[in-house]
Amino acid sequence: MTNPKGRFGIHGGQYIPETLMNAVNELEEAYNFYKNDEGFNRELKDLFNNYAGRPSRLYYAEKMTRDLGGAKIYLKREDLNHTGAHKINNVLGQALLAKKMGKTRLIAETGAGQHGVATATAAALMGMECVVFMGEEDTKRQALNVYRMKLLGSEVVPVKSGTATLKDAVSEAMREWTSRIADTHYCLGSVMGPHPFPTIVRDFQAVISKEIKEQILEKEGRLPDAVLACVGGGSNAIGTFYHFIEDSSVRLIGCEAAGRGIDTFETAATISTGRLGIFHGMKSYFCQDEFGQIAPVYSISAGLDYPGIGPEHAYLHDSGRAEYVAITDDEAVNAFEYLSRTEGIIPAIESAHAVAHAIKLAPTMDKDKIMVVTISGRGDKDCAAIARYRGVEIYE
Amino acid sequence: MSKIRNAFKNGKAFIPFFTCGDPDLETTAECVREAVANGADLIELGIPFSDPTAEGPVIQGANIRALKGGVNTNRIFDLVRELRKDIDVPMVFMTYANVVYSYGAERFISVCQEIGIDGLVLPDIPYEEKEEFLPLCRKYGVDLISFIAPTSENRIAMIAKEAEGFIYIVSSLGVTGTRSEITTDLDKIVKVVRENTDVPCAIGFGISTPEQAAKMAATADGVIIGSAIIKIIEKYGHDAPKHIAGYVSEIKCAITDK
Question: How distant, in Å, are the alpha carbons of A114, A355, B91 from that of A75?
Fold first, then answer.
């Protein structure tokens, strides 16, 4: 689906400073070599299985299914991975690749802190130096994750520029990479940025849909009717979709963060409110004003609080293969509480956006239909923020 | 041949950079006039962008101040129309791809021709993506400026061969901003450029002092200074134009006959 310049339809590309061109070319070359290298794949699989705890469970949410009274709901438990989210899949792949390339230092951006924690973890495991850029606003929303990264031996740089959230952390990580390339790999956390990142990250996350397919065939003897995942940049969603793209009977549904609503300025729903643009190395959809200034987006979820979407999602939207829906803060918080009460699973507030849509969709589907909802991460990190949202002050 | 060549006809060229609208468009206009009166050969006008990923803190600050002041692309086009009444030296826009793309690339680039903008400097458009804007730039006679960086190595010849207007050589790794020392082997880069094109090359990023400017001018055909100028504007605000006059004159003097 990608051409040599990393295009997904008209989206993607390599819109980056000349200073970084040889770095991304070198990365592409190394990736093209190692992705087919038996030794590399063996090592990665070993890390996936014995370190990250893969395969992750596909859990039949029986109570939720009964309560909603429609489609049979399965949860893909990426929250059970080591470090508590799907981010570890991509990070182990990239860190191993970086190591093979002779890099000794990882840098990363992080929103909710899950990707930062995963990168710090991989760096600790592989004996690499690690610096994580995190919007100052997010360091406050996700203070526990800042501590975890430091505990793992990483440096955390609070980013004060712009809106002091995820987009600014990406900008700052890119700036850092232009100043130090030789020993440093930029471990980008989502299916975004310049080629080859959207492809590399997708390939490492595609393990999610590969497993779903095997697991659902084993449990149900057939493919699901719909798969759902939340979308910020879109890495857990593309991982959830990838091996179903060719199966046209499977609906692919991405759940964006509408924040306070897509008719307000306080939203991060890119497909619903953005338009075509070029930013952070890629052509895709972005929330922006009429002069192309990137909009200060908002979501209760620090991990979905990003003004763009990965280029492959933009393409899946254009082609109509995938559907994208917008979920408000309120709906996500209700879903966060609902899944906790109903199944005893506290999802990340990001993942709760997908759960919220499942709550709407399942009752509209027949009982013989099957849906899979990816729980991309665990919600422990969000408890304090959700408590505040409900007017309860708790101290971590 | 584009008008940009004219900038390199009076010895080594000095190219000062201004972020339009920092602190306001009137001050930008006065600074440009003072710069031209004191020897600037080509003016690089920055259209501010919300998320300037190639800039260090100084120019980031200028972008934020300008946008907060309500500057937008249309008002900057008006500024250039006004300047073109009495300013004859070549002028180029420096901005980010999305500012051009989102405006409608053809609409943006045709206005450039209409108001007398001679080139476009877009740090997030590398060689591989130049087809995004190059056909339109050709159509409207606006040079799309190419960058060469310390990391370009095997790419230098390829980029130089197709360059137009002037080549923007990035002095060192990292983002814009003044540096105490520039250690890249720029002579080597310029040598490869010269073997592949007669398009003039100017060095930018990190230059602030007359001594640094003189050293860069001895290597290349011109010198670009941004952050050091923005610092003067940040410090003096509406009084900046007269300080810009002195600074430009000092730099021009330092690079003349190098």
Answer: 19, 9, 59
Task: Test B97 with A278 for CB contact under 8 angstroms.
Answer: yes
Distance of CA A178 to the CA centre of its chain: 24
Amino acid at B180: S
Alpha helices in chain B (DSSP H): 25-37, 57-68, 73-83, 97-103, 105-115, 134-139, 156-161, 186-196, 210-219, 227-236, 240-255
Q: In this structure, are A275 and A334 located in the same domain?
A: yes
| In chain A, residues 2-21 whose CB comes closer than 8 Å to chain B | 5, 13-21
Smallest CA–CA separation between B237 and chain A, in Å? 22
Report the distance separating Cα A181 and Cα A1, nearest Å: 29
Mean pLDDT of B218-247: 97
Enclosing domain of residue A14: 8-48+87-201
Q: By 3-state DSSP, what share of chain A in percent is helix, strand and coil, each rounded to 5?
A: 45, 20, 30
Residue B110: count of CB within 10 angstroms of its CB: 15
Domain presence at residue A395: no
Residue B96 CB contacts under 8 Å (≥ 6 apart), including other chains: A278, A279, A292, B49, B51, B52, B53, B122, B123, B124
CA distance B238 to A53: 61
A residues 16-55 near B, CB within 8 Å? 16-23
Which residues in chain A have their CB less than 8 angstroms from residue B147's CB? 17-19
Task: Give the residue numbers of A marked as catalytic.
Answer: 87, 109, 376
**Are A353 and A335 in a shared domain?**
yes
Is the per-residue pLDDT at B130 higher than 80? Answer: yes
Last-in-domain residue among A179, A201, A223? A201
What is the separation of C-alpha B70 from the centre of its chain, rounded to a whole number of angstroms? 22
Separation between Cα atoms, residue A38 and residue A224, nearest integer Å: 31
Quote the DSSP letter at residue B146: E
d(CA B16, CA B246): 13
Is there a domain that residue A2 lies in? Answer: no
How many residues in total does chain B contain?
A: 258
User: Could you tell me the CATH number of the domain that includes residue A152?
Assistant: 3.40.50.1100
Q: Output the pLDDT for position A211.
A: 98
Cα–Cα dist B38/B44, whole Å: 15
Cα distances (angstroms) measured from residue B22 to each of A3, A269, B45, B48, B103: 42, 32, 11, 9, 21
Is residue A2 over pLDDT 50? no
Parse chain B into domains and list their residue ranges: 3-255
ipTM of the prediction greater than 0.90, yes or no: yes
∠ CA A85-A90-A92 to the nearest 5 degrees? Answer: 95
- CATH number belonging to domain B3-255: 3.20.20.70
For the residues B219-232, what does the mean pLDDT come to? 97
User: Measuring CA to CA, which residue among A242, A276, A236 is closest to residue A256?
Assistant: A236
**Nearest-5° Cα angle at B252, B249 to B257:** 140
Q: Cα(A328)–Cα(B215) distance, rounded to whole angstroms?
A: 57
Please answer yes or no on whether B154 and A22 come within 8 Å at the CB atom: yes
Distance CA(A48)–CA(B56), nearest Å, equals: 38
Q: 0.90 cut: is pTM over it? A: yes
Does residue A393 carry a pLDDT above 90?
no
Most confident range (mean pLDDT) of A129-143, A342-356, A379-393 is A342-356
Q: How far is A78 from chain B (nearest CA, A)?
A: 32
